[in-house]
């Protein structure tokens, strides 16, 4: 298993609560503490691309059927505001500051400016938080922004939770990326909040190694709720 490259210099993550990572490989999770435990953890894996774009065509075919059947479409996507940046926890900050294939991103992290073409990383209204071309919301659809991996954000007053309560929705169908990160995070939290879960297997994908998507599908089938496919839903009567 490949590991995450070491940092070149001591690197700080987070704002009010900080982590410090050192070139030696040590990551200090409590730098202000005089007492600490030090132990080894497994390294991050390299990624290989999964053909996630294969989700786009069947999703585009399915959306009109779902709308006709009265299913509300919610487009849940990243959309950070300036006021969110100081509140980003160190675990999330480090996740989006990691090197890609051994090359450091400069500048790294959420909110970093990628230039006029791509905008600031995962900020609301930027090019990189737009929906993929061809996935176009209609007037009756809802657009919901999130600031964490999970759409519920660990909060009872998240934008997603408020919208679901307003509509009286209890059953959620899931499509999206990455299957084992944002999708799984939202599925697990929805399950813990008592929602009915249905994962659409061929409409979720991930860039993670083998096992990333299958973990979501296995747990959705055996624990969280149910698994279906776009072909089954196209047969809605």
Task: Report a brief summary of the structure.
It is built from six helices and eight strands; from the N terminus they run βββαβαβαβαβαβα. It is globular, with a radius of gyration of 19 Å.
Structure description:
The chain is an alpha/beta fold and 237 residues long. The strands form 3 sheets. A 3-stranded antiparallel β-sheet has the order 1-2-3. The protein has a 3-stranded parallel β-sheet with strand order 6-7-8, sandwiched between helices. It contains 6 helices and 8 strands; from the N terminus they run E-E-E-H-E-H-E-H-E-H-E-H-E-H. 23% of the residues are buried. Strand 7 (196-205), helix 5 (212-224) and strand 8 form a beta-alpha-beta unit. The termini are far apart. It has helices spanning 56-68, 90-95, 159-167, 179-192, 212-224, 230-234, and strands at residues 11-13, 19-21, 27-28, 74-78, 142-146, 171-177, 196-205, 225-228. It has a domain at 46-79 and 124-234: Isochorismatase-like (Rossmann fold), CATH 3.40.50.850.
